[in-house]
Amino acid sequence: MEISSMLSVLIPFFFLIPSIINARDSITPTQPLKDSNQNIISLNGQFELGFFNLSNRRYLAIKYRNIAPDSIIWVANRNSPLNDTSGILTITSQGTLLLTANNTKNTSSPKLIWRANGPNPTGSINPIARLLDNGNLVVGDYLWQSFDYPGNTLMPTMKFGWNIETGVDRSMSSWKSDDDPSEGQYHFKFDHSGYPQMFLKSQNVTVYRTGPWNGVRFSGAPNLKQNSFYTFDFIINEKEVYYQYNLTDLKVSTRMLLRTNGNIDRFIWNDKVNGWIQYLTTQLDSCDRFNLCGPYAICNINNSPVCGCLDGFKPKDPNAWETAYWNDGCVRSVKLECNSDGFKKVSGLKLPDTRKVYYNKSLNLKECEKLCHKNCSCTAFTNSDIRNGGSGCFLWFGELIDTRYYSKQDGQDLYVRMAASQLGSHSTTRKLVSILVPVLIFITGSIFIFVWLKRKGKREDFFPEQELSRSHMSASHTQDNDLELPFFDILTMNKATDNFSSKNELGKGGFGIVYKGILSDGQEIAVKRLSKHSNQGVQEFKNEASCMIKLQHRNLVRLLGCCIHEEEKLLVYEYMPNTSLDLLLFDKTKNCQLDWPIRFNIINGIARGLVYLHHDSRLRIIHRDLKTSNILLDNDFNPKISDFGMARIFGGSEADLENTKRIVGTYGYMAPEYAIDGHFSTKSDVFSFGVLLLEIVSGKKNREFSHPTHGLNLLGHAWKLYNEERSMELLDSSVEESANVPEIMRVIQMGLLCVQKSPEKRPSMSMVVLMLGSTISLPNPNEPGFFIEREIDCPSSSSNFNKSINEITITFMDGR
């Protein structure tokens, strides 16, 4: 009996010996995987890699082995199926995976079906491809892995998102049908603009958005909660942006699936029913349809109809809402007034689309509100992290879209900008203050002007309109200290510009439109016309004129005069035949005109102009809006700095560092300490100059540049190349023939020195000129500012001399 009992135990084991011996978890150059039931099996026996049949087509796939044997988690050749069993998976001595099949036309040369398209090792010895216990197929020491190329399944430990260093962007795509693994119509991936979110798209049309990560979960996924099966987290740093979940109980099998109908569902294996049980679904109801209700609207599944307006807003087209067409959304019931506006708290929400937000993880809610209130374009704010009472800051600019209501428990708070009259008693005090403060300022200003006029006698104000209205000459003059400012009458301006004909337009900006004109003596001029709807006004007009009449330098554009007639306010400049730098530099058909000697001359000229502004003129002047569109080029491509509407003038004894609540300039060029905290100095201009240097070398815009591999902007890309000693790769290909390599390398290093995050470490412009004209050794730069962070998208408020621009400009101000 004992012998028979032993045999009954051992006999089944003997039958298992062949399968144990034949089982292997890897392939090598000498042991390929053929389509003959020679599957690769993970050590724990849970997953297998092999050739499988779907709709009479053969696929190389990874699937569960012991449970749900039909559950495929990854397919190599999903878009290139095999028609027969001639497939073979090999690994080369360099570590490249190749899937080939018999070539019917040439039997000696197999047909390539698929290859691993990740980074391959070089000089590898005896490379191995191994199937791990988590279902991941890896080559060598993770030189390539299947988890970097998901199909329709997200597995535990798999990183779903973007590797900035390698450029790998892990996203999901649905199967075409349940038995056809080729790419279907749905794709699920991160969008990295603004603050990262996951978007589900159907043929490039967005159908669902998860919302931003709030420290606990994605704002638009309230059912993503801590549980006993798995943990999850969202990571964002300088190297990676990804979502990941990990099992807390290794006995549990779970997977997230993007289904053919676009649903994103999580399944858990249940032994009792021997099948997958749906644990949760991401899209809950029709309110999860992306932007169903339009801007400034809110979707509430408990209401009928589901779409309504946020408090303080009304339907843009009430008739359209009656027919259940809601996409037009809502508009404000009361117009904003900027400095007297306040914020209304709305609770229980999925946060609006964050692709155009500014975010800062170090600010608290009060600091976030203060920053939003200072910017008239800021429409809402809230904490970016809801843990421990809240921290971090999101600022929205422009319309709020794709907002829905959950509950106060599952949703988040959003603070929406409202006019003071909509905010109740608290806003009444603020409104009263907003009325009294301007009155007091007016009274104080009137007293000051009266005293000043009394001391100066009957001297006219800076722009005496009564004097201008009496002028019928082509030009008259008024004195400012020892300088004269000519005044042109409106008839002369109308004639010179052919009544401001559109054919004479040179460009437009925050100030208004710039026209080309010709005076009666044949002199060509550029006429800058203040628009009635301009973001700027008389103050900027006077500011630019007062700057320009005090400045005389070969690298500053020359102001010829001005004209004020009723509503018209004009500045008249010398005409620059080669227009502005950006029109040539960023145009691939024109930038060949700017060879390296010309570009280096432009750099030197801009530097000398800034030295004059910062150090050599009678007053210290900080430009605050230095950019390529404000650099004009004469006949010989000599640069001239223009557009002083945003400049600040200081006496020589005044402090170099100033604070302001009115932040102006163009994002992509603004120094971080100025854009965020309002601290500006001559080093703010140095930062802008550094951006200019890198743009002139590369021929690319910092703001619009995003490297396809690592996603950094131009500053980050230049910094990365510099650290890898590959700086010359930054050079614009159109100047390669005229390149002076040592000179270019030096300019790139100087550019990085100028854009360092800390203003104290940036060189002065006088030091920059010294560096340009000598061979003194340069210090190594530190990390640049804004090389990875996302920036604010706001309406333009900066003027532009010679073109219509797409640059984003920001204005933080106390009032409009």
What features would you describe in this structure?
This protein is of the alpha+beta class. The chain has four domains: 21-149, Bulb-type lectin domain (Agglutinin, subunit A), CATH 2.90.10.10; 287-423, no CATH class; 465-571, Phosphorylase Kinase, domain 1, CATH 3.30.200.20; 581-812, Transferase(Phosphotransferase) domain 1 (Transferase(Phosphotransferase), domain 1, Orthogonal Bundle). Helix 9 (596-616) runs antiparallel to helix 11 (682-698), helix 9 (596-616) runs antiparallel to helix 14 and helix 11 (682-698) runs antiparallel to helix 13 (741-754). The longest helix is centred in the middle third of the chain and has 32 residues, at 425-456.
Q: Based on helices, strands and strand pairing, what is the structural class? A: alpha+beta
- For CATH, the homologous superfamily of the largest domain is named as Transferase(Phosphotransferase) domain 1
Q: Which strand order do you get reading across the main beta sheet?
A: 29-31-30-33-28-32
Number of domains: 4
Task: State the low-pLDDT regions, or none.
Answer: 1-22, 456-483, 652-656, 788-816
User: CATH class of the largest domain, anyone?
Assistant: Mainly Alpha
Overall pLDDT metric: 82
- Compute the CA-based radius of gyration: 33 Å
